[in-house]
Amino acid sequence: MKQLTEIRNVDWIGDVPRDGIEDAIKRMDNSYKAFFKGGGFPKWASKKRFNSIRFKQVISVEDRFVQVPKLGKLKMVKDRPVVGKIKQITIKRQVDGYYACIATDAVKSIQCHDENQVLALDMGLKHFAVDSNGNYITNPRHFKTHERRLRIENRSLARKKKGGKNWRKQAHRLARLHNKIANVRRDFLHKESTRIAKANYIVILEDLNISGMAKNGNLSKHILDCGWGMFRGMLNYKTIVIVINPKYTSQTCNSCGVRDAKSRISQSEFVCTACGKADNADKNAANNILSKGFAFICQREAIACA
Q: Roughly what angle, to the nearest 10 degrees, separates helices 142-158 and 165-199?
């Protein structure tokens, strides 16, 4: 970092924003640290791997323009007003254009009016989630909706000569389609997580091993399409999230507490072999998650008081 100051008079280094060079030096330093810890030999990264640059210097946003070092005034379309002092800006290149992610010191959290409101969610495939109140969130199956179009575009790409002009155009068209699916999925997850966070002070989820579940050859595509991990991450910064062990939540009767794998008759039907109570399997699991979450909250409060 000190040597960087001494060589700023070199033309091609002086033309590059300092923040971008510092990020590259930090990534290289992290690679060497990982190597000395036994993480493998550092490799040169492809120029296609990094598609963003971060600015930490003085930045200003005025109307429809953003002022960044070395690049000057850039015209942009704002999706929301910039509130607070700007701390940094990251310019990202995506297949459908360039995006500016602006971070400020303003903190705007979602407020829930009732601190006693607690909700448990059982994540699934037939339904995206079933809550402890008996409400069902439909699984939109974004990938399934566009799967036929993806198959056509992939077939068209495979028929073209790799590296050619038409191949690059088709690869860009396919990337735009994948980006559209990702944006639709992210929009759905944001809307659902915001709705739940506004209505509930605490949300209880299962600590699912998503990467392990995705190894199932028959269900991997559907599990990854749901975006459970991204959904949990969104809830984490919008409200209070408690995760519990998912063990036996789908085999235990919420009414009498008897655990029996035979009670789970089908994917959606649960009939207790002990008390005979019949309920939706996902709703029964959500109530078990709620009970485990309440037990965890009481235990945590008892430890805090002690």
A: 170
